[in-house]
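Appendix B, example 12.
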Amino acid sequence: MNDFINSLQGIKLDNVFNPWFSYDVEHDIDTESPDKRLTHLRQYLSERKDAKYLLLAEAMGYQGGHFTGIPMTSERILLGKMKHKSIDPGHVFSNIEPQRTSKIRVRKDGFSEPTATIVWEKLIHSGFDMRDFIFWNAFPWHPYNPKKGLLSNRTPSDREFENGEVVLNQLLKIQKGIKIIAIGEKAKKQLLRMGMEVPSVRHPANGGATKFRTQIIREINKTG
């Protein structure tokens, strides 16, 4: 695990926010926010040592992992604000108390990420054990548009995606034998570049939610 965490910390890129080691002066609730996010990630992974599936998306977003430290997981999920969608903080981890890291004035109930809601809700409603899944990104950090600031997203460059390979390889060393499903073409392309041909599904964003819901269950059942 230490090698994995070191690989997350070691890369420093322009216009990229590292949620586990960088302090967002404008939006973080306090200077301990990076440590809180790292604690979240450690706990999330520690409860998934025997996970069966790694769902790999493109990159971290400002509405999700930027403030939680967990890919495809929003603050509203951790703060218990998505129970009406049957998503409970306990689905993420259960042995520590989730900590808010965004300022209340920025988003009263915390940030909500559509992709996170769609992914968690579908898997939970389908009756899966959420400890069987690890969510990750081909580019694990948050790439943002410098003209729009930290509360924005952008697509990583091919060179940036290459930096994500080191981290993904470290994660796969920890989770030996885990079955990977790519979410979206960018993640699929990254895995092919790494010599891994894996099943892929439509990304839920930009009108892809219906296809994602159908395809993800089909691929899990195939690989299960």
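Residues 2-223 form a domain with the Uracil-DNA Glycosylase, subunit E fold (CATH 3.40.470.10). The mean pLDDT is 96.
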